[in-house]
Amino acid sequence: MNNPQEPRLTPIDEWEDEATAMLDGVDYDTDLGLRMARDAIRVSNGELSDAEFHEKYHEEVLAEFGEDERPTKPEGFDDD
Amino acid sequence: MTNYGLVIDQERCIGCQACAVSCKQENNVPMGQFWNRVLTEGGDKIDTPSGGYPEDGGSGSLDMQYQPTACQHCENAPCVKVCPVNATYTRDDGIVEIDYDKCIGCRYCMAACPYNARVFNWDEPDHMPEEGTGDVAARPQGVVEKCTFCSHRVDEGLDPACVVNCPADARIFGDLDDEGSTVSKYINEYETDQLLEDRGTNPKTHYISGEMSPGRPQTSDKMESELDDVSPWSDGSEDVPAEASESDSSGSGGSHHSIEGDAAPHVPAVGSGGDD
Amino acid sequence: MTDNDGLYRRDVLKAGGAAAALGLGGGEFLQGLAERGDETAASKRDPGIESYVGQNDVIQTVCSPNCRGKCPIDVHVRDGQVKKVEPHPPEDEQYKRACVLGLSHTQRVYDPTRLKYPMKRTDWSPDEPNPDGRGPDAEFERVSWDEALDLVADKMQSLKADFGPESVLFHVGFGNYGQSGQAFSRLASLFGSTQPASTIDTNVGRGFNRVTGTGFYLPSTNESEDWENANTIIVWGSDIFSSQFQMDASKVLDAVENGAKLVVVDPVYTTTASKADLWLPVKPGKDVHLALAMMHTVFEDGTYDEQFLRKRTTGPALVRKDTGTLLKSSTVFEDGSDDKVVAVEQGSNTPVELEPETDGPYALFGEYTVDGIECETALTRLRDHVADYAPSKVAEQTGVDAENIRTAVRWLATRGPGGIAPSYALGRYKHGHIFGQTYAMLMGLTGDYGQHGNIHAHHSGGATLSTGGWSTPEDADPGPSVRFSDYPDAMIDGDPHKIRAAYSIESNMMGNQFPDRQRFREAIKSLEMYVVADMHHTDTVQHADIILPVPHWFEQEDIVSSWGSHPHISYRHKVQEPMWEARDDYYAIRGLAERLGFGDYFPETKRELLRELASRDDAIDFETLSEQGTQKKQNIPIVKFTDAFPTDTGRIKMYDDDAPSEEGVTFDLPRPLEDRTADDYEKADEYPLMFMQKHSRFRIHSQYEMLNWVREVNPEPQLDIHPSDAKARGIEDGQYVRVYNDRGEMIVKAKYNEAFQPGLVNTDQGWWSRDYLKGHHNDLTHNEVSEIGQTMSFYDVRVAVEPAPDDLDTEKYETDNPRGTGAETSRAGGD
Lengths: 80, 276, 831
Known about the structure:
The structure holds 3 protein chains of 3 kinds. By secondary structure, chain A is mainly α. Chain A contains 3 helices and no strands. Chain A has helices spanning 15-23, 30-45, 50-65. In chain A, helix 1 (15-23) crosses helix 2 and helix 2 runs antiparallel to helix 3. By secondary structure, chain C is an alpha/beta fold. The longest helix of chain C is centred in the N-terminal third of the chain and has 19 residues, at 145-163. Chains B and C meet through helix 1, helix 4 and helix 7 of B and helix 2, helix 3, strand 3, helix 9 and helix 10 of C.
């Protein structure tokens, strides 16, 4: 994936294509991975809070992975 | 608190690939994978410039700079947020690391990392020599791996391999929370950038570009904080600001650097006092 | 979550599983820290990461190729295997160094190209050499060391009896900076064999020598620790940050950080150029014009160093107008000498003899009549000569903007001590010696000798073990020398005498590195016996009759000189015993010496040899060296050229009345002379592109070609070509192209590269035959040398380029084999 002969980082507006390629063939929901990736950057940017991010994907993550151990879990969050 | 970070002086970096390859060696990185790549800010291929060859005999528009790039150990690491099994986590000292035992290979972290710093072992990892190299065990097929700031070395008081092996003294590792550390001083004194600052990831890797720093000579493999004899680059005195501003003012006629007759020359930087 | 483990996790390493069993969570690494001191616990500090820090045996040794590193290194060994390499600070710690190649020995030690056993070409015998069996299809069979050495010694003896000892050539290259070469030359001297004379990279140094009395390869220069004192560094024709100086890059960068101006003169926008304050994109071959224009500016500006010119040069010396010779002291003074020259004192016009290192009120310019002889000063001649080379006048010819020429030399002349760091590349043009002469004189004008901050070459002086003539015993009757470039004539045509057998160590020259490779192949074919000792199965080895396997450097004890690198001698401690049946060159040399009747001349063991050689160097103590691993030679001056110059006058020659001539040009003053770069070169239309073979950071000559880590970054030979040159030929970026001229061809991938001047193409040197889809870069180069420069002109070569044929087999570099042939196994493994 990270070819040492590639001269530069993938431009950010092309990043989703790259991310899609990375997730291609993965045993898990690729669409979920992409959406979470996109929103994780919004969390970094402060556009979304950890708690909002956690809640937004909790059900899907649980369904897909059978667990949700992300560190974004707000205090008192009901895991079930 | 300790908060490790890295400063890379792009004005000093000569693109020699020593950091890229010594990283592979130290960390037993499989063939076909790089945790640390030396990117080129320039043309469409590594080691090529942007711009056009001058047609008028002038210096023209060609431009090229190297940008070594590995995991940026972001303060707000998106990879950590998306990992459903908490395999990717941030250590108390700020190093972003992967628990390979937990990693299930979903690669969500790779999609979330805007720096393409992570690699996935699709196949049984291929090492040359077969038995592997360096000072950490190989990772199995099916997990994601990446730069750890050489946490196995840092835990023993040693600088990361890429830092120790840089012949240009362009890589400086240390505690961002310690105001007296060279990394902190250089971030204060020089113009530094983080990659993709608009993403809000707040990387702990900072790039100096524009004005060259004195670097951080490595005459020992120990971290600065482990050195008894405090190095000239971290003693908190005015040496860095003074030198930085002095070179600013050295115009074309700058005779203040000339050495007349038997006058004592500028004394080359001495060893850092490492005791190996 | 423990319950879910088995459901989602892939198999993990046993070690990883053990760590998991400890149940350490992400936040618990502090627990590990608390248990520091307990190795097992420490290694499990982070879950999933098993660390081996502290578990390695560390052996200090040294890397030894023909580069400007000679880097003292630590080799980490665990479980009986080399695991990694790190730089080890030498006695003077500021010379801590290593590069991407030295750091990768971990791969080189175990590479499948390593030779394992002595071998004999299957269809070779001393009486039936079957020369046509040599080459790519040659097959080899394993023989014992005794068998191999018996065969070689017997053949040498019979050739000596029939044709004289000079019919055998002992060829040594530069592939190892240990001391086995000393023993090799000693045996050659005793046997009386033909010995080699280098015609590689001596061009610039020979020209510099005409002016200063020193220089063969590049002249010595201040040790690199002093480079940060430079105020102006003009790097001329060298990518020092990729080759020659990358280990010392910090020292140049420190100079720049201190405020030095970095100027790069190069037709290529190199890594070094990308760091420069000013880049002069000179056209290939026009360097002398450019340097003369710089002299012109110095004269015009009056920025020459008058005191230096009076004290240390023949600038004020008088030249007779009638004969063009310098006015000799013996002509003017009764007790005057033939070696001394004469100046006049300014004002009084009184003639005075010029002593070395003596200042005086000598007239620098003007015409004077002494004893009725009309004269003018040497400096006047030089000034008048360069009057034709105003920057504005040479700008178009050299391709460099006139104002930038002036700026560069004004920095050198006015900012305090600095220098010019020229390269071997300039000497790879046929008449490169003229540049050596020119820049030596230019720095005479600016007074840049003998001070802190002066620079005269693109690598420093370094330290060499002084062995006091051990390689030529007093009772030996050494045979003649034959120049590298004359090998084919000697082997094929018997000119100057017939060479019938060759024994080669530490060299991949004949099969890979020498120019006009096909001619050297023919030369090998004319031999009755070709013995090659090497570490790897190189192209040269593939053409051998007898192959002697040499161990990796980590398996040979040695003392390593650091010529051109740093002022230490290093001890190469063995990291491990030789693998398979590889043996130190000294084993073979001594074994042959015994068989040839010279056994008594050679100590029994390598260690004894090293003790003997070290004892001959007063600045080195064997025990100290062995114990410390490095010893700084205290007698190496940091600043060079502080004493009288070793010329007749003790001064720099600003005019040479005893100058050699070449092609009708006399070099009393620097006069441009070009070969294939000349504007009117006859075949310029047929072969319109100049072809150079840059030294990259990815190989040292042909060494390290096999490193898989490095080949991931730099997988295959390429042709750097400006997009305009490529498009004009219908060549797309990344397309395979055929590069050819009247000697040969090669097929490589085109790489659009704006860094390269239109009209100039490049393939980095050092690749092996196996790396090309067809041909080789040295099938294109030629073996013509200037009689003055005596240096192979690798870059003075013209080629044409066209798209490669459609039916090309490119499988070698398709995506499933990204590392190219480097990932293949060798052909002559032997087991």
